[in-house]
């Protein structure tokens, strides 16, 4: 059970990084900002159900922490890249590909 919880926690953290990146590039409290926060939630619920870790109170500590940690880390990556580049999108994958294409 603990191994599943740790794996789902890592999954939630990584899954939220692109959404935090997106959230950092839009106006606070806008529709896109709210979507960047709420779109991952159903996927996290499905991960809970399919992994059978359940909804015990102690799982919330790990998964809520991973949720906000992934969001914050995505925003951190956006802000760090923004200092280096003047043109950026809200999509971390697009920005990474553009960066790779420029350097090659």
How would you describe what is shown here?
This protein is mainly α and 104 residues long. The longest helix is centred in the last third of the chain and has 28 residues, at 57-84. The protein has one domain (2-103). It has helices at residues 2-24, 31-38, 40-51, 57-84, 92-103. The model has no long low-confidence stretch (mean pLDDT 91). The relative contact order is 0.20. The termini are far apart.
Describe this protein with a few key phrases.
104 residues, mainly alpha, 5 helices
Briefly, what is this?
The chain is built from five helices and no strands.
Radius of gyration: 15 Å
| Count of the domains | 1
Tally of separate helices: 5
The number of distinct β-strands equals 0
What is the percentage of strand-forming residues?
under 5%
Task: Look at the structure and give the mean pLDDT.
Answer: 91
Helix content: over 70%
Global structural class: mainly alpha
The helix-strand sequence is HHHHH
Q: What gross morphology would you assign?
A: elongated
Can you tell me the residue ranges where pLDDT is under 50 for at least 5 consecutive residues?
none
Distance between the termini: 45 Å
Biggest sheet descriptor? none
